[in-house]
Amino acid sequence: MTLTAHEAWSRLLDRARQELPEQTFKTWLEPTEALSLDGGTIYVGAPDQFAADWNESKHAEMISSMAPIALGHPLAVVFKVTEERRARPQMDMFIAPPPQKAKIPGQQGGTISPPLSDRYTFDYFVIGKSNELAAAAAHASAQAPGKVYNPLFIYGDTGLGKTHLMQAIAHEIVERKPDTRITFIGTEQFTNELVAAIQNRTTADFRRRFRETDLLLVDDVHFLKGKEAMQEEFFHTFNALYEAGRQIVLTSDRPPSEIPGLEARLVSRFQWGMVADIELPDLEHRIAILRQKAHLDHLELTIPEDVIRFIAENVRSSVRELEGSIIKLLAYASLKHREITVDVARDALRDKLRAVEGAAPGGPALNTFVIQQTVSKEWGVTNEGLRSKTRTKNLTVPRQVAMFLMRELLGMQLVEIGAAFGGRDHSTVIHSLERVAAMMKEDSGFAQRIGKIQVALESLRN
Hints:
This protein is an alpha/beta fold. It has four domains: 86 residues, GMP Synthetase, Chain A, domain 3 (2-Layer Sandwich); 167 residues, Rossmann fold, CATH 3.40.50.300; 74 residues, Orthogonal Bundle (Helicase, Ruva Protein, domain 3), CATH 1.10.8.60; 94 residues, DnaA protein, C-terminal DNA-binding domain (Chromosomal Replication Initiator Protein Dnaa, Chain: A). The protein is built from 21 helices and eight strands. The strands form two sheets. A five-stranded parallel β-sheet has the order 5-6-7-4-8, sandwiched between helices. A hairpin with a 2-residue loop joins strand 1 and strand 2. Helix 18 crosses helix 20. The N and C termini lie far apart (71 Å). 37% of the residues are buried. About 8% of the residues have low confidence.
């Protein structure tokens, strides 16, 4: 009797379940599906490239070795990404896809990139003190587009949920009014399409597309800085939509007034409606985010509550980093064939916990945030300014000092330091370290000031 691909894979999975820990099987093999049988090879679909690569390296050979017993003949196993899932976000690898919704108008023909994510809705957005203003403004804009907060300008560091809120507005609006024309675009793509339109002499079509939309969503508008032609076109597009009472939503890594090289008339218009920031989540908010993540991905029984609290207490940089920690922990536990505990989490996330090692039990942790906060207070600036892209002298020096102290006290890698300051590259960090070292040699008073801060921070270890 000739088996189908589905039947053959089902038999192989039954054997694999007997050999692997239940947690490993559920995480990596249960979400797979048989695609086809081709001679002596079975092709198996995985949710995304990460899962395909992991299964290929960790499980393919083992499962193939089971074929002679399970099937009565040899069979090679090859994992690859299921084609229909290629467009899904990587974080979806642990969750069943939500019910398919109607295609959002304006996305047909492949002209909108990236497409709206089914997970970026208000239902999946966890509200806390750090984002409640932005979330409330987003809800209001979705309920009364073009009337309450127009434009809505949301800013904050990378990975805190700006794009999530922006897309949630679109989902809410199109659910109530399916024929809404929506344009979701990144500033870089806007720039590329304008250049192409100019080269192809199709600027009239380009303008019509953007100026006749009902909802314009523009991600990362800080990339407009210094691009005069782009700013000119965006200015007129903004005016046309605003005067027509159509909703505009913008995101950036900093407020309008701090975007260098942005024309004053655009800064003014970006501030006409509501400017709302999203900050780093506090402990309670981080716990809520992780619980939500565990619920959505059906991991409540896999990740204990004490592990969730441990991650929340030690991973503080962004929501994206929190979710990344979950993936890394699951992968590590699967590789080691161990149940998830606090000790396993500590081993799996050792690189992320370096910043808090040596902190006094129950006391303040010595980490990047504390260093930034201490330096900000010493120089009389804000934490937000320290992490911003602004290069004025009153911010540049304390920013360089904070980088220097992170290297000295926490032994952080250059890329980690750069990430703590808005994603600066390693060359900027190197220059900062060298600059502070030089200033300490040239100015004894400056050196004493750094020494005083260093002693204060060191005391947190005791």
